[in-house]
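We modelled the chain as a single entity of 96 amino acids. Its sequence is:
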Amino acid sequence: MAAYLIADTLLTDPELYEQYKLKARPLAEQYGGEYIARGGELAVREADLWQPQRLVIIRFPSSEHANAFYDSAEYQQILGISRQSARRTIVVVDGL
């Protein structure tokens, strides 16, 4: 069953975040990830619980693949760049 890694990101240093993006995408793809959305225009229709900033959605073949990507030593090495340049919420959710 497919799974989706969804990131809501508030950039604090957009220039530094570009370095993270250049490294994260090929790594996600190594784990079977396919970018579905990446920071496109948002039309927030309801916001009682959450006001998203910038969404990234990556489809993986399974939650095991998504979690293996996130937990990988390679990703952990570049995660610091993200933490220095953005505030984020990351979730992995099973799909259809």
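As a brief sanity check on the tokenised model: Helices lie at 14-30, 63-71, 73-85. The longest strand covers residues 3-11.
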